[in-house]
Design a protein that fits this description.
The protein is built from five helices and 16 strands. The protein is α+β, with helices and mostly antiparallel strands and about 290 residues long. The strands form five sheets. The protein has a five-stranded mixed beta sheet with strand order 2-3-7-6-5, with no helix packed on it. The chain has a four-stranded antiparallel beta sheet with strand order 10-15-11-14, with no helix packed on it. Strands 1-8-4 form a three-stranded antiparallel beta sheet, with no helix packed on it. Helix 1 packs across helix 2 and helix 2 crosses helix 4.
Length: about 290
């Protein structure tokens, strides 16, 4: 699959060729937002047609820390002895106004044990009645973008179909050398100590990088991405195949920028050799 930056570049070229000269609508962030929205709608459309989840839509969210909560933290937990977990994920794509397919898989940190969705009232009834299913299975109910898990576990893993793929992560297990830190990611110190942005961090400590802090650290220690994941960038593979990408761009040009469909098709055919990933046949091109 192609990078987001390639899709944005091809869309910018088409806008220029179509004499759309409004600079505000050529900006990368604006076009990326439109691509995210168009992708979500295209996924919904394809699911309605095929009734199947395409694995290419899914993104591994990696390990995520879970907050322990009780009756003092949530009024829905009426029994003081009940301890649950709470975790928040970004918005997922809705299918027929259902978000359980967008929350494709929630599982234990080892990924071996699935966590199954149920209603809030159903889960509390199982807990209060001592339902035997709780001896072997884990459950969660969802409220907004928050997931309430029973029994409590300190971490979960997830496979999601995100509305905005840039809310997701890429798995990253490597040591990150000084000078290669990425901004607004969380890092963990893995041996000895380091100094970042004037602060000392020892083994096991975590810190979040900032533009002000820079991309370098000093000291004898090394760092890795916390929970073995880093934020998505414009240069990572974007979870949209070539055929869907072409359809999304055509729909954007027709419905968002009010260009005649026949003109869009002709322009794509005429400019095929100038694109990074877009082609008249909808096939990804590697350059």
């Amino acid at each position: 699959m192609a990078q987001l930056t390639h899709w944005v570049t091809d869309l910018q070229k088409l806008l220029t060729a179509s004499n759309i000269t409004d600079d505000t609508r050529h900006q990368k962030a604006y076009l990326a937002h439109k691509l995210h929205s168009g992708r979500a709608k295209a996924i919904q459309k394809e699911y309605y047609r095929m009734r199947m989840i395409n694995p290419r839509w899914q993104q591994p969210f990696g390990l995520t820390n879970v907050t322990k909560i009780g009756s003092a933290d949530d009024p829905n937990i009426s029994n003081e002895s009940i301890c649950m977990g709470k975790v928040t994920f970004p918005p997922v794509v809705l299918f027929n106004n259902r978000d359980d397919l967008g929350s494709f898989r929630i599982a234990s940190s080892s990924k071996q044990k699935g966590i199954y969705r149920c209603g809030m009232e159903e889960l509390f009834l199982m807990i209060e009645s001592g339902d035997e299913r709780l001896e072997n299975y884990m459950f969660y109910y969802k409220s907004g973008n928050s997931y309430f898990i029973y029994p409590y576990t300190s971490q979960v893993s997830a496979e999601l179909i995100l509305e905005n793929p840039m809310d997701g992560y890429r798995m990253a297990t490597e040591v990150v050398e000084s000078g290669n830190l990425t901004y607004e990611d969380i890092f963990v110190v893995v041996n000895s100590g380091i100094i970042y942005n004037g602060n000392v961090y020892n083994i096991g400590d975590t810190f979040t990088t900032t533009v002000a802090g820079g991309n370098s650290y000093s000291g004898p220690g090394k760092v890795k991405y916390n929970n073995q994941k880093r934020k998505m960038t414009y240069f990572d593979e974007y979870p949209m195949d070539a055929g869907m990408g072409r359809d999304v761009i055509v729909d954007l040009l027709v419905n968002e920028f009010n260009i005649e469909r026949s003109q869009v098709t002709d322009t794509i055919n005429d400019m095929t050799d100038q694109f990074k990933v877009l082609s008249s046949e909808g096939n990804t091109k590697h350059r």
